[in-house]
């Protein structure tokens, strides 16, 4: 989709809410004392502590006003966040959660002179990587210590184990570590512990058995995402007072449930993303008090029986469960509040209300002809996204009185969107379905709605954006990729300061939404694939200077130049497919993804690009940029994955600054004026998959030293000045992953490299199946190849697409039959060389071959009858050779025309006019003969798509272009438009 996923945003939001909720709760316990005034030494220590920090007053640090209000001369016991002992006035409680503290805590901090502290909460501040001082172990009366999420760094000191009266310990954060020695001391000495939270603490070197002797008073154990390895002790579940266990996201943690003597008091269990074996039978039999069950991506034993009836929160997502959802299992849980079954393989439809039931709220499964439960009126959260559910959305979902979050995205639901009566709805996601009709009016009246995602459906209609004006709480809106037409006629004075995410891609917009000028918190903006024809307005360039992280204005008709980009935190910029001019704009150093292809930018790349140390993808292709390529790509060695400078006017040599450990995956310099030789430093690019250096002026011999690159899939050196023979491989298994090799239009000579053909493993037997493409999340690889005589830009490269093109060189000698081992090969072009000998009959074994061009060589002998077995062959050219004998007939050979055979005076039989002397006559072709059309690449300009047996064979090569987006115009650039129109006419 291109922008931050909804659930990542929701996670950030919910995390902030948790912090604020925790802080608010803690604050209520920090009551003001009565009695003696604050002890003067404590008052002085607190002020000194305050003055050692900067105080950041932002929305995130929601309680920064606590410490800001502290003033000298005032009773510190009346200060917010401070609790004093009534009789002595000593400070015994300090709650500075989310207090906006920024700075370091040193071991000589005045904080450690508050020797009477019993409760200390410093969570959710920024201590800039300070170590957790051993001085924290000096608070001998401490009962509650919370240092979580405050940017501490380094090991947890063993002195924490000196806090013998500690009841609650929270050190959660990803930047601290805990070793076995310190953990053992904590477990041994802190015998009063009831709550332990070490979420995200790196305990990769800790043996999980160290936890088996924890205090018998333990009620809460939170150890998620701690990098545990090994077997977790079963004895933990025998703790008599245990209420909560969270071991989630310890991916290498294994273990089993004990079969008896479980804690009957356990209320919450989270084993998500662990390898602990979950036995449904023991789980449901022993955990009678269970309320919250989180088993996302787990290993299960047995099928789930009836669940404990008091469950309120259930997460069984991402477990590959299939079949129909067992509605009766879940809907009969009267207390059910949250149900997450997303990321499974569930099929079927929702149950409907049984109108004949004595209860108006009974749900009926018509496929099974039975009641499955009652409408879950307490349900607040229902996540069913990423399944295969079909049918329509039932009306009862819109009437659930408590529903707050509904996610049905990425299914196969159809029909209209239902009306929603529930005013509690806060989040609604219905994206990636087959829903049609208009946006229901009721959705536009949900005043509590925070996020709304209706993208990638078939919704239609004209929508005036002012109709969303009632959604004053909305911070995220995605209407992209439907058939909507949006207008902003009455929004000149409308403002939406709370808006953080807006995606209106493919919404038929003709102007920039002016109301965005007053959206200071905007983080994500996508207006791509619209028809905006204008300069980028100045107010947009000033929008969200501190907040904007993602901007996509691609596929419009934007014109003019762009001034300096001042977004400080931008990480994604997409301006491709417009008509922008002038110098190349360079965003802030924080930017990781830059797409500016298919514009009209000129001049050299500004040297400021060298400051983008986090750059991962840089695509400047199809512009008019010139000059030399900066050597500073060395700066990007640890981050840059894609460098695409295709079709510009760069000159000079290819930079040699490829350092060890770089992560470069795609290097495309095709269509420039580069010269010199290939830099040997390319050998350091061990992640390289695509290397396209075609259409330059590079003068070198064949770079056989590239054969050792373990992941290279595409090698294009076409139309350069490479010369000489291709020698024997230097490694045992050269070019094992290679799918595409194009050496055409160079000066290579000598024999064909048979030894290389023997080792092209990916072409011998491709293991890739289905519609998989080369590339990653933000970038899919592009390549221009000659397919059946047409130079075609493939916007997506299917993993099973394999071709060899050695045309227009001076290779000599015979064609080895070893090539017939390349069973996965789709296209083979040896045309315009000096090859001799015969066509190997074994070529008839290459069952996947779709085009074969051997034209303009010196081949002799006949055309092997075995080639008739190539039922996928759509284009065949052996013209301008010295072949003799009858042309094979039958199957695909009945579709080839004169041009495939012209220039071979010894050939006879249809479609040629020359008859054979033997009584071997071909059947008339069903196509009208046409004049020969010779092309420089060996194929004529016409492509005839005719099938064998079952009718027309469209050919995978055309399928490559259509399947990706359904519209060939989005995917191909064809040299020869008349020929393309003819192809598409035939395929239609």
From TrEMBL:
| Family matches, as Pfam families | LRR_1, LRR_8, LRRNT_2
Supply the InterPro entries for this chain: Leu-rich_rpt, Leu-rich_rpt_typical-subtyp, LRR_dom_sf, LRR_N_plant-typ, RLP23-like
Q: Domain Leucine-rich repeat-containing N-terminal plant-type, which positions?
A: 39-84
Tell me if Transmembrane is a UniProt keyword of this record.
yes
Looking at the record's lineage, which domain of life comes first? Eukaryota
Write out the GO cellular component annotations: plasma membrane
Q: What is this protein called?
A: Leucine-rich repeat-containing N-terminal plant-type domain-containing protein
Q: Which organism is it from?
A: Prunus dulcis (Almond)
Q: What is the lineage of its organism?
A: Eukaryota, Viridiplantae, Streptophyta, Embryophyta, Tracheophyta
